[in-house]
Design a protein that fits this description.
alpha/beta; two-stranded antiparallel sheet; 38% helix
C-alpha cells in the first residue's frame, strides 16, 4: 500500500499563482458562522458545547444544560455577527462564510444580510460537530442536509466545504459523490491551492489555516487586540515581501463569539486598515480563489504530482 500522505507538495519551486492585478498576496477572511448549531441538550445531544468561548471546557455536569456557554454562543449571533459585518461593510471588503447550515436556518436576518452583502458560502456542515465521529452514512446525510438547507437560506449553493477541525477518512469521497463542490478546505498543509485525485476524479483543495485564526483567543494564546493585530501583521508582512517573486495566500478565520467582542474587534479593524494601506493585495472570496485556480491551472492528468506552470 502506498503512503497516504504527501510530504513534498510543490517543493522548492511552487507555481506563480498569477493573482489578479499582479497581487503579491491573496488574503481571504473567513467568518465561521456556528452559533446555534453547536452540540446542546435542547438539540438532543448528550452534552453542551463550550468550545472556543471564554471557558475552555464546560464545568457543568454531563446531562445538564450549560446556560453560560449557551449565552456566550448566543452573543456571537446576536451581537458579534453584526459588528463584524459592519467592519467589512465600512471598508467594502468581502468575506467567505464558513456556514453551519442549521445555525443560519435559526437566524434568517443573518442569512439575509449575508445574501445582500454578497459574501460567498463555504459549507461548514449541517451542525458544528466533528465529522470524524460520524459514521459514513451519518456523514453522507449531514452533507445532503447542509447543502439543501444553505441553498434555501442563502439562495446560493455552497462552492466549497470545510469540516470542524478536520475531516473523516470518508469526507472527500462523499463530497465528490454528492457533487457540486468546486473545492474543499480540509487541509492545513500549504499556502497555495493544489489538485488531488479522489477515486480517480480531480478535486481542488484550497488550504485553510489555524495559525492566523482568532481561535487562539479561546485557547489563551492571544490575550489582547494588540496580540492579534501584531501576529497577523507579521504574517502579512513576510508573505507580502516574499510575494514580489513568489505570491501566496493568507487565510484569516473569525469566530463571532470571540472576535465579535469590542476589545478583540479593535484588533481586527486595525488589521483590515493595515491591509487596505498596501497596493497589490487581492482581498478575495474563497470561491474566487478556487475559480482563479480552475481557470489558470486547469487539471491535467499527473498535475497533482508536479509543480504547475501557468499557460
Amino acid at each position: 500500500m502506498s503512503y497516504p500522505r504527501d510530504l513534498i507538495g510543490y517543493g522548492a519551486h511552487p507555481p506563480h499563482p498569477r493573482w489578479p492585478g499582479d497581487a503579491r498576496i491573496a488574503i481571504n477572511f473567513v467568518m465561521n458562522y456556528e452559533e446555534g448549531s453547536e452540540p446542546s441538550l435542547p438539540d438532543g445531544d448528550g452534552r453542551s458545547e463550550a468550545g472556543l468561548t471564554e471557558t475552555p471546557a464546560s464545568p457543568v455536569p454531563t446531562g445538564q444544560r450549560d446556560l453560560a456557554a449557551e449565552g456566550m454562543f448566543e452573543y456571537g449571533a446576536r451581537v458579534g455577527f453584526w459588528r463584524v459585518m459592519r467592519l467589512f461593510a465600512e471598508r467594502g471588503m468581502p468575506m467567505t462564510i464558513f456556514a453551519c447550515a442549521l445555525a443560519l436556518e435559526r437566524h434568517p436576518p443573518a442569512a439575509q444580510a449575508i445574501r445582500e452583502a454578497g459574501h460567498d458560502i463555504c459549507c461548514h456542515g449541517w451542525r458544528w460537530v466533528e465529522h470524524y465521529k460520524l459514521s459514513k452514512e451519518e456523514e453522507r446525510e449531514h452533507i445532503r442536509r447542509a447543502v439543501e438547507s444553505l441553498e434555501r437560506t442563502t439562495g446560493q449553493r455552497p462552492a466549497g466545504w470545510y469540516c470542524r477541525y478536520g475531516p473523516s477518512i470518508h469526507t472527500r469521497a462523499l463530497l465528490l459523490e454528492h457533487g457540486g463542490f468546486r473545492y474543499d478546505s480540509d487541509a492545513y498543509n500549504d499556502e497555495l491551492p493544489y489538485w488531488v485525485t479522489q477515486d480517480g476524479e480531480p478535486h481542488l483543495v484550497v488550504p485553510y489555516s489555524l495559525v492566523t485564526n482568532d481561535a487562539k483567543f479561546g485557547r489563551g494564546q492571544f490575550s489582547t487586540a494588540d496580540d492579534y493585530f501584531t501576529f497577523l501583521r507579521d504574517q502579512f508582512d513576510m508573505l507580502y515581501a516574499e510575494g514580489e517573486t513568489q505570491p501566496r495566500m493568507m487565510s484569516c478565520g473569525l469566530h463571532l463569539r470571540l472576535i465579535g467582542h469590542p476589545a478583540r474587534a479593535a484588533g481586527l479593524a486595525r488589521f483590515l486598515d493595515y491591509v487596505r494601506g498596501h497596493d497589490r493585495v487581492w482581498v478575495a472570496r474563497r470561491a474566487e480563489i478556487a475559480e482563479h485556480w480552475h481557470r489558470t491551472f486547469p487539471y491535467k492528468p499527473g498535475m497533482e504530482q508536479i509543480a504547475l506552470e501557468a499557460p
